[in-house]
Amino acid sequence: MKHATIKETAGGKFFISLTFDAETRPTEMKRESEKVETFDYSMPSLILSASGENDITAEDIRWYRNLEKRIAKEQRKLSRMQYGSKNHWEQKHKIGKLHEKARNRRKDFLHKLSRKVSDSFDAVVVEDINLQHMSQALNFGKAIYDNGYGMLRGMLAYKLNEQGKILVKVDKFFPSSKRCSACHAINHDLQLSDREWTCKSCGTHHDRDKNSCKNLLDEGKDILNRWASGDSSLILAPSGVLSEKKPHPQARYNVRQDGE
What we know:
Blueprint: E1 3-8, E2 14-19, E3 36-41, E4 47-49, H1 58-61, H2 63-79, H3 86-120, E5 123-127, H4 131-137, H5 141-147, H6 149-162, E6 166-170, E7 196-198, E8 205-207, H7 208-228, E9 234-236, E10 241-244
Parallel strand pairs: 3-5, 5-6, 6-10
Antiparallel strand pairs: 1-2, 3-4, 7-8, 9-10
Helix pairs in contact: 2-3, 3-6, 4-5
């Protein structure tokens, strides 16, 4: 054993974490991926999937929002109490327990979802979006941190890696929303508020998020095929995440999607 760390949570609970040295065997990664799932990040919900089997709506994920009024009420009570008093610390723990309830519900839901997906598919494709940038630039901070998309990607990565499977990260500059999944024409006039659009080249009518899922699925399969054939421009990290070795803005794609 290396060391132990004791931590007290905001709800007044104590946990101890033990760190050990252990020998691990590297997992042999599968070169062929027959069943591939794709997730497109969606606001204000969580994800839409290419298969349609793993779509998560806003009603499924409002863990903090459902407790927000209770938390605000208890915080108003705390503000009227004398700092350092017994009632003050008990009220702080009460508020901490509400935050823990939201956090535990989020982790439980995401663990179950990531386990279901990692057991059902050989590879999962996601977009390498910058969540911190989105939360600051688009004022989506509360919604982004509540849905836990970043946590979901991390859970998928290690659960897939344990089984020799791969999480594919598509470059954030790939025009998944603006490209027509039927003819691959780029719609440069598409705005963030446009949830549906019609391709001017082939006339196909698209739902924005479902169209993005199809494009990400095609791009993810292409990346997997390139990796299987030994493409040196790709790198498979020890965590089981497959991505471009040195992605350069607009190196392969002729349009940038800011905030998507």
